[in-house]
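REQUEST
  id: r-88c1
  op: predict_structure
  target: Esterase/lipase/thioesterase
  payload:
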Amino acid sequence: MPLLAEIENWLKSRPTAQGVNSLQALREQVNKDIIDQQGIQQDASYQQSFHVAVSDGAEIEVRVYVPYSLENAEQRPALVFAHGGGWCLGNLDAWDRACRLLAETTQQVVFSVDYRLAPEFKFPTPLNDFFTAFRYIYENASRFGVDQNRVAVGGDSAGANIAAATCLMAKQHPEIKVSHQLLFYPALDATMSSKSYHQYAEGYGLESSTMVYCWDQYVQHESEKQNELVSPLLARSLEGLPDTTIFVCEYDPVRDDGERYAQKLWDMGIQVNFYLLEGMIHGAIHMLTVSPDKVNSIYRNIRM
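RESPONSE
  id: r-88c1
  status: 200
  body:
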């Protein structure tokens, strides 16, 4: 279908991109843009946070979003979530509203992980940070009032890449069981060989040139782009992965990554809930002020 009129008008209304003189300035700009899309009037509260020690002795923050109806419940399902932002952008504040909506609409406790960003921390550090946080939550499920048999992973864009790679890592740790993976418009192939990278290269918010920049921030060497933990779509085998929910946007350079991944999972006999968000662009889960009805329907359609 055509690009949604409200999204097309929003794209046209956006100011001409202004050059930023530092990565920090770009990060601030992107986070503000995402928060503006969500609407400042929205409730973005969370109940608590804690810190997890990672491999090099650093500590990363994890925020916890508990559905109001489950505040006093035990054995609750959980979703450990990685925010997007091309591995080098994004933060917990900008993803606050999305995580609150995920908690309330899925009725799961959402753990939002503040993994460290590239290029200061290149692959595999962001992935290892997230995996360490997932493992900590999984092993301490009873402490959080969580059912260890229902601990899922999720993310959007680069965060979905990290979530998918976490499932591949978990295959090497039989003591860990990921119950589900929830992937919003995942970027899964660093070689950028899909047709959609050319078909939607410009004019739809996220541009293919931006993805080139982001991939290059994440990996240290070109050869790493073939690593399945960088490019889960290139994994030799997806056997043993959990049931999966995938949302892709129609007008998105990474659209084909999600579609091809869904097909590979189906071919392995894995249950996949697949949704094509017609007329929508990358970053759809944040666009509450642009297309509220469509965005709210995304959250309502999540099945885990």
